[in-house]
């Protein structure tokens, strides 16, 4: 075909630190801020595509840090992309994969920015490039993780009253099983039938603890247990899934389509938390959903607690999924004290509305971005 004249001209990568509205306590770390790498791909036709690379608690969740993502993109990915035609994301990402092993979060951020640019150029929402929307809004749960039972119940009541969320995920695994179960049971008792309650153990249990935990949590009225065992313990996940009276979800164990295929073949989980950064990109995330559907495994739209750019990119993908049995947890922007978009995302009525504009359909407030940039003008000591 005739070659397109538009080239990738420049790639910005900015580390942006935003405080959280309260401490967010997970089994491995408590966070007080979120750190995003905002990626902007400038093309020679004037189009700028955006992506985001965000993880949780530096290197305590996964093996990529924000600082490492920035370095990987600046030193290894940008030189491969600059000067190339900007209009074929699949071929650009194939080139990146040829020279960069792993680094899924960084790849996802770059792929998102390239796809955003392509969708803007085509004048269609990103979801169209990803296969087309099957829904215009997504259900969104909220994670109660203040570390305090009373405060979590108050927070849940507020969310219900505002009609913002009616599904809650609780982070457990840090304390003794009996203490964790008492915490979860108190919250479920306070909620009654008004809300669904699930837990995320973030790999903290061993198999005997998980077996006991599954029964105790089922008795407490919990619907689902996310990643109870270490990500490498696939046999344990398979046995637990067969044994547990309530659904078991895989999260950290799913680092791409081949993990998903293995889990589907062996029924290593009842549900997948699909996270494009963990899977290696939006296309890879879509492949996980296809494998889940083919394997009769439930689908859940996960989050890395991204800000608005990463969140809306995931939303465009999740809107294309045939099934979304467990809803989504795309609440990341609501955990941050500052919004870096000109118009915040539309969270209402227990869900999130998809934007209708081209590409991601959102715009950065550049003053805010520059203010919160780690190396931004306001932070530079002359
Ligand atoms: C995780 O492990 O699922 C998603 C929601 C939340 O509170 O933490 C994240 C990470
Ligand atoms: Mg999880």
Supply the number of helical segments: 13
CATH topology of the largest domain: TIM Barrel
The separation of the N and C termini measures 51 Å
Strand order in the sheet with the most strands: 5-6-7-8-9-10-11
Structural class: alpha/beta
User: Biggest β-sheet, characterized?
Assistant: 7 strands, parallel
CATH class of the largest domain: Alpha Beta
Mean pLDDT: 96
Count of structural domains:
2
Binned strand content: 15-25%
**Morphology:** globular
- Please name the CATH architecture of the largest domain: Alpha-Beta Barrel
For the secondary structure, the number of strands is: 13
Q: CATH superfamily of the largest domain, please?
A: Enolase-like C-terminal domain
How do the helices and strands follow one another from N- to C-terminus?
A: EEEHHHHEEHEHEHEHEHEHHEHEEH
Helix content: 25-40%
Instruction: List the bound ligands.
Output: [(2S)-5-oxo-2,5-dihydrofuran-2-yl]acetic acid, magnesium ion
Radius of gyration: 20 Å
Poorly predicted regions: none
